[in-house]
Design a protein that fits this description.
By secondary structure, the chain is of the alpha+beta class. It has two domains: about 100 residues, Beta-Lactamase, CATH 3.30.450; about 120 residues, Beta-Lactamase (2-Layer Sandwich), CATH 3.30.450. The protein is built from four helices and eleven strands; from the N terminus they run ββαββββαββαβββα. Strands 1, 2, 3, 4, 5 and 6 form a six-stranded antiparallel sheet that branches. A five-stranded antiparallel sheet has the order 8-7-11-10-9, sandwiched between helices. The termini are close together.
């Protein structure tokens, strides 16, 4: 049975794959014979889908097949007749694309982190190589607890005090942050207005990107659905 026809050419999504309900790798496009039959129930995307039965945007991880790029997966459940997850379709994307997208919005200070605080996109960090945690753990904690806000904090990368605005994306728990260098006196005078403006802008940016991402993945899911269920 052929699950995926060789028509998948979208560069944004590097691989489409299918696992069964237990996490066994069944098929992919492009093919990955070296991982065929292996169990990926340990992956974040598998746990996320099986726990919620909804689409799930994974943490950053290194993919199993060579070359082992840093990727994320938008995983979508296949619901069987008993209303249980019969399998999972995954759309795997190199995180380079997130950084490329961030460059198109007219700012060089946008940072994207996943639900565990790993850097997805940062203007001064390479997308490939060792997976890096965001260097201000307190900001990540505040992001998860407060959901949105802005703080003045010393940035060890820029080696200066900065104001960092952040917003958590409900349902996915990823975060978007903007780092801005400014004098503390200016920040104190306009902090309230600045915080609300930036946080609102972050949410709008994310909504735009999320719509773009979902439309891409849903489009390809629909394109392959007949192959999956046949």
């Amino acid at each position: 049975m052929q699950f995926f026809k060789p028509r998948f050419k979208e560069e944004f999504v590097g691989q489409v794959f299918l696992v069964d309900s237990s996490g066994i790798f069944v098929a992919s496009d492009p093919p990955a014979p070296e991982v065929m039959g292996k169990n990926f129930a340990f992956r974040d995307w598998y746990k996320g889908v099986m726990g919620t039965q909804y689409a799930y945007l994974s943490e950053v991880y290194k993919r199993a097949p060579e070359p082992q790029y840093n990727v994320v997966t938008m995983a979508m459940p296949i619901i069987g007749e008993n209303q249980r997850v019969a399998g999972i379709v995954g759309f795997q994307m190199r995180i380079d694309h997130f950084k490329e997208w961030s460059k198109t919005i007219g700012t060089n200070s946008l940072v994207i982190v996943d639900q565990y605080g790993h850097i997805v996109a940062h203007p001064q960090f390479l997308s490939q190589g060792a997976i890096a945690d965001f260097y201000l753990p307190q900001i990540i904690k505040d992001l998860q607890v407060k959901k949105s806000g802005a703080e003045i904090i010393f940035n060890p990368v820029e080696k200066e005090n900065q104001v960092i605005a952040y917003a958590l994306i409900p349902g996915y728990n990823w975060g978007m942050l903007i780092e801005q260098s400014s004098s503390e006196s200016f920040i104190e005078r306009s902090a309230h207005l600045w915080q609300h403006t930036i946080v609102f802008s972050l949410i709008l940016l994310w909504c735009g990107f999320l719509v773009y991402l979902l439309m891409r993945t849903i489009e390809h899911f629909q394109g392959h659905r007949k192959d999956i269920v046949s």
